[in-house]
């Protein structure tokens, strides 16, 4: 009989060293908005995403192959780049088909690059949550859900997603003795009736609403718009499953 896999939730990139075990699959989460945008970019035709930590690294790809360059800092698109981090930019465009996206964001791409040193990395968001649960359950490996937070700090939206994903994985036979699994699950239960409302006074929603991106928030909170599972292979995120449930 297979041993039931272990589940942990890491609430900030700055706590990752306490969880790192060189064997678990790490689910990187940045619900608003990096990992949601990544899922939609691949769903809508991008072949691979190269997540880099700094704007300077992203600029090294300028004038190279036919790359699309995306950069976001403090919620805003960085001047001189083709794309920012709005998930709406990765919808309803033929520009993405078959291309490579080089992306840097304030927190999400950093978290990916921290985790990839010693762990298998997969991208999670509400947009692919059901497919992700199936994928993780089928693999049967231990899982650490890693919230990208905001500049090392705790953030509510990633924690709510961690709670939602944890509840589903525990329902599939994962076990845990991690209090952040309990805490995120309880927070999610108290908020799940209206996630948009429950984030109303959260710091990142305030930050984004100053930039008029409420539509982005609504889109990032939609469930199961895709079955794409972006996994890191070398330095690139590629789709493990390209099967799509989106009506284009
Ligand atoms: C990030 O990676 O820090 C976020 O996705 C920021 C944003 O909302 O664009």
Blueprint of the fold:
Elements: E1 7-10, H1 16-19, E2 25-29, H2 34-43, E3 48-51, H3 55-59, E4 67-73, E5 76-77, E6 100-104, H4 108-115, E7 120-124, H5 129-139, E8 143-147, H6 156-171, H7 179-191, H8 195-198, H9 203-209, H10 214-220, E9 230-233, E10 236-239
Parallel strand pairs: 1-8, 2-7, 2-8, 3-6, 4-6
Antiparallel strand pairs: 4-5, 9-10
Helix pairs in contact: 6-7
The structure holds D-malate.
The site of D-malate has 12 residues, from loops.
Overall pLDDT level: 93
User: What strand order characterises the main sheet?
Assistant: 1-8-2-7
CATH architecture: Alpha-Beta Complex
Number of strands: 10
How many strands, which pairing sense, and closed or not: the largest β-sheet? 4 strands, parallel
> What's the number of structural domains?
1
Which runs of at least 5 residues are low in confidence (pLDDT < 50)?
Answer: 244-248
Give an overview in words:
This protein has 248 residues and is an alpha/beta fold. It has one domain: ComB-like (putative 2-phosphosulfolactate phosphatase). 34% of the residues lie in helices and 18% in strands. It has helices spanning 16-19, 34-43, 55-59, 108-115, 129-139, 156-171, 179-191, 195-198, 203-209, 214-220, and strands at residues 7-10, 25-29, 48-51, 67-73, 76-77, 100-104, 120-124, 143-147, 230-233, 236-239. The strands form 3 sheets. A 4-stranded parallel sheet has the order 1-8-2-7, sandwiched between helices. Strands 3-6-4-5 form a 4-stranded mixed sheet. Strand 4 (67-73) and strand 5 form a beta hairpin. Helix 6 (156-171) packs across helix 7 (179-191). It is globular and about 50 Å long. The termini are far apart. Residues 244-248 have low confidence and may be disordered. The structure holds D-malate (MLT). Residues 30, 32-34, 72, 75, 85, 105-108, 148 line the site of D-malate.
């Amino acid at each position: 009989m297979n041993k039931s896999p272990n589940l942990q939730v890491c609430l900030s990139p700055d706590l990752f060293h306490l969880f790192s075990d060189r064997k678990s699959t790490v689910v990187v989460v940045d619900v608003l908005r990096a990992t949601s945008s990544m899922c939609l970019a691949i769903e809508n035709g991008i072949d691979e995403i190269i997540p880099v930590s700094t704007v300077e690294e992203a600029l090294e790809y300028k004038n190279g192959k036919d790359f699309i360059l995306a950069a976001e800092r403090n919620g805003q698109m960085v001047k001189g780049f083709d794309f920012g981090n709005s998930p709406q930019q990765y919808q309803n465009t033929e520009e993405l088909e078959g291309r490579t996206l080089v992306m840097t964001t304030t927190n999400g791409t950093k978290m990916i690059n921290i985790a990839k040193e010693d762990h298998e990395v997969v991208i999670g968001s509400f947009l692919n949550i059901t497919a992700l649960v199936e994928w993780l359950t089928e693999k049967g490996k231990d899982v650490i859900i890693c919230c990208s937070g905001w500049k090392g700090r705790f953030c509510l939206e990633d924690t709510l997603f961690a709670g939602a994903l944890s509840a589903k994985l525990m329902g599939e036979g994962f076990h845990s003795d991690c209090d952040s699994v309990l805490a995120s699950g309880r927070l999610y239960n108290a908020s799940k009736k209206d996630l948009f409302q429950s984030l109303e006074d959260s710091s990142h929603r305030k930050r984004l609403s100053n930039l008029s991106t409420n539509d982005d928030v609504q889109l990032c909170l939609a469930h199961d718009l895709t079955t794409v599972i972006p996994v890191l292979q070398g330095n690139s995120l590629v789709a493990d499953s390209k099967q799509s449930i989106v009506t284009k």
